[in-house]
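Entry:
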Amino acid sequence: MVENQIPTFVLRKIMLQTENSMNEVRENEEDESIDRKLGEMLTRFCRGISPLGLEMCLPSEAIQRKHLLDLLYNLILGTTGPEAAPMKKNELRNDMASFLLLLLYPNIRKVNKSTFCRLIDMLSILASIVTAAWNELSKFSFMKELKERMELIFKIIQLPRQLIPRCSEYLSNDPFQEIVMIPTASKLRSVRIKLSLATAGIKTIAFDKKTATLKLPHIDLDATTEVLLRNLVAYEMISQRGSLTLTRYTELMYGIIDTSEDLKLLREASIVLNRLNSDNKVVEFFNGVFNSIGSKSTASELDQTIRDVNEYYNSTRKVKAYNLMRKYVYSSWKFLTVVATVVLILLMVLQTFCSVLSCPRLFNKA
């Protein structure tokens, strides 16, 4: 899905040409009708495939998004609205580089970082040489006819230059350097933290300290959910967004669901609707999404909620007692093992001594 995103303006042009060939209507009226129809089609499709709740969106706002995946992402996060002013050349080049990086992403993860960076450097040098040679050749009159045809090719050749800063920025961080830490659903239940259904989407995730209630949005899991989440998280990670909210949500669910018992608690709270064959597949599903995409975590709006849950969980008597035992008992297990061994040896010596010299008689004489 990620690698097959047709820009929205291209879909609009195709639809406009189709409508014009079928009937002749005044241009302004036709444009408004096409915008409305296309916007409704896109939002209706997103609502049909989305595993999470979506925000409301007007058709006029939907067609302002870059493509279908961008629309679905912003509907989930509730950030739909008209795009900013048209992109400048530098921004457009960065966007093209982002798109190329998105295509290469599944393979980048399998390649050694230094090897991949060297490959990009070599391609950049080669692109510079070819571009310089073409600039000299294009000055000759017999090359003018080919200039327009070759222009697009040389724009593509220059893409490796745009990839260098993006790849170095992305590959400099270990995707598994920060894993979200939150107790599982069964551990939360053990300290009387309740799980409740949030009123809307991801933006409404919250923890109520007074009632000890963690509110999570509803998610519908079926055969297509894993592919959708992987694409959405990958798109978020390469889009230069300040807050990786959807990535953080995936980490959150990865932390909360560890066993089928955790899933059962979420299902009872109407947070998870499982359309897969078994509960174990859901556990494998979230593990698979997290392990395949990884986490390039930055500050997220969900971080405060996670901190609040951890603070409340760690402040309960049960967890405090466990932490104290782990700190003072488990940490000194080597010393306790030595003491136990010494005591056992002394008892064996005493037993041997008493079996030979008859300890009861000695003690009675004393």
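The chain has a mean pLDDT of 73.
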